[in-house]
């Protein structure tokens, strides 16, 4: 299940607002820092490619960093992005409990923070994620349809997600 449509709807809205509001007033390109915990998996690669394409269409540029699952590396990379003069930070935190320092560093430089997919443990300017209730309904529907053929159902999520594990078996 891909999160791309919801992600890009939310981020596209932000980019449009930023492009119209800031770029028009200042006549400059919007520089977006995009920090992702790791580029493992097709989803993140697809999301990033679509994000970069949309930002480019709107006249922005994207500086991307992948932390390979290392919280300290992600923090160092984000500090480098902030020093480079980004206008907005989009980030997918590896460990949401350690993300507060990222938000604080960005806000000290007056850079808005968009937390993507996982909500940071500090007040961000925008959160773009999923409607987990609707995701659960869709998963339950798929299981219900498959249940004549399958007696076991297993959902697994990233270790930082509160919905990490849910298992069910028929008795």
Q: How much helicity do the residues have?
A: 40-55%
CATH architecture classification name of the largest domain: 3-Layer(aba) Sandwich
Assign an overall shape. Answer: elongated
Count the DSSP helices.
Answer: 5
Report the order of strands and helices: HEHEHEHEEHEE
**Mean pLDDT across all residues, rounded?**
78
Count of DSSP E strands? 7
- Structurally, the number of domains stands at 2
Class of secondary structure makeup: alpha/beta
Main sheet: strand order? 2-1-3-4-5
How would you describe this protein?
The protein has 171 residues and is α/β, with parallel strands linked by helices. The chain has 2 domains: 4-128, 3-Layer(aba) Sandwich (Rossmann fold); 132-169, no CATH class. The chain has helices spanning 4-26, 42-57, 71-83, 100-108, 132-146, and strands spanning 31-36, 61-66, 88-92, 113-116, 126-128, 152-156, 165-169. The strands form 2 sheets. A 5-stranded parallel sheet has the order 2-1-3-4-5, sandwiched between helices. A two-stranded antiparallel ribbon has the order 6-7. Helix 1 (4-26) runs parallel beside helix 2 (42-57) and helix 3 runs parallel beside helix 4 (100-108). The longest helix is centred in the first third of the chain and has 23 residues, at 4-26. The chain is elongated and about 55 Å long. Mean pLDDT is 78; it is low at 163-171.
């Amino acid at each position: 299940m891909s999160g791309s449509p919801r992600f890009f709807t939310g981020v596209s809205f932000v980019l449009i607002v930023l492009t119209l509001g800031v770029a028009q007033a200042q006549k400059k390109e919007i520089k977006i820092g995009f920090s992702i915990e790791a580029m493992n998996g097709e989803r993140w690669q697809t999301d990033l490619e679509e994000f970069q394409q949309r930002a480019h269409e709107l006249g922005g540029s994207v500086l991307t960093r992948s932390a390979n699952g290392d919280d300290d590396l992600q923090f160092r990379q984000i500090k480098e992005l902030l020093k480079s003069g980004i206008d907005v930070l989009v980030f997918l935190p590896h460990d949401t409990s350690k993300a507060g320092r990222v938000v604080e560093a960005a806000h000290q430089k007056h850079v808005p923070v968009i937390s993507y997919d996982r909500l940071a443990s500090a007040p961000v300017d925008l959160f773009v994620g999923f409607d987990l209730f609707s995701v659960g309904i869709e998963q339950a529907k798929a299981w219900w349809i498959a249940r004549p053929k399958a007696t076991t159902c297993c959902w697994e999520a990233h270790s930082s997600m509160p919905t990490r594990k849910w298992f069910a078996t028929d008795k």
